[in-house]
Amino acid sequence: MDDSSSLVVEKNIVDHVDTSDDVSTMVEKEAPDLDQQKPFDSTQKQDYIPKTSQETVGKLTQGLLDHFLPEAVKAKTSLEELTSNQEILLETIQHENAKFLDCHPMGSLTETMTKARQYRARLLDVKKDMAALHEKSAKLKKRALKLQQQKQKEALQKEQQRERELERERQLMAKPARKH
């Protein structure tokens, strides 16, 4: 039985119990008249159904209803609650999906991340170049300092050489002899 037909049967059972009709009158309305059944014929291929009194049928029906109706009502309540919860959950999921779809920048996020990787690679290259240039400039400064020191040393040596030559020329100049 599918869900819709089981709900109809359940509703019919509940409607019958809710009415003030006596169970026996309910059985009389829905059950065929058992007194008009044909007698058992062994040539027929039907199962034999013994005749039962209306009171027995009523008690059996009432017992059957008493046994299954509370469980059917509980099942109905549980199904209604489950359906309600499913509707709430469905609405929540649809709302979250809408939020997710509104987050369109997902594609641009991937693009941004790709650009960030490229810029990082460029930055690392620039840092490498800067470090190499710094090293070269430090070497050039050191070389320039050495050259400056060497030039100063050479200039000092030239100056000292010139002073020595001047001193020697002074010494070689003719000196008047002194009288003793």
Describe the structure.
- The protein has 180 residues and is mainly alpha-helical.
- It is built from four helices and no strands.
Cα(first) to Cα(last) distance is: 158 Å
Mean pLDDT: 79
Order of helices and strands: HHHH
Proportion of helical residues? over 70%
**What percent of residues are in strands?**
under 5%
Summing up helix and strand content along with how strands pair, one would put the structural category as mainly alpha
What can be said about the biggest beta sheet?
A: none
Provide the low-confidence segments as ranges: 4-11, 14-32
Overall geometry comes to: rod-shaped
Output the radius of gyration: 58 Å
Helix segment count? 4
According to DSSP, the number of beta strands is 0
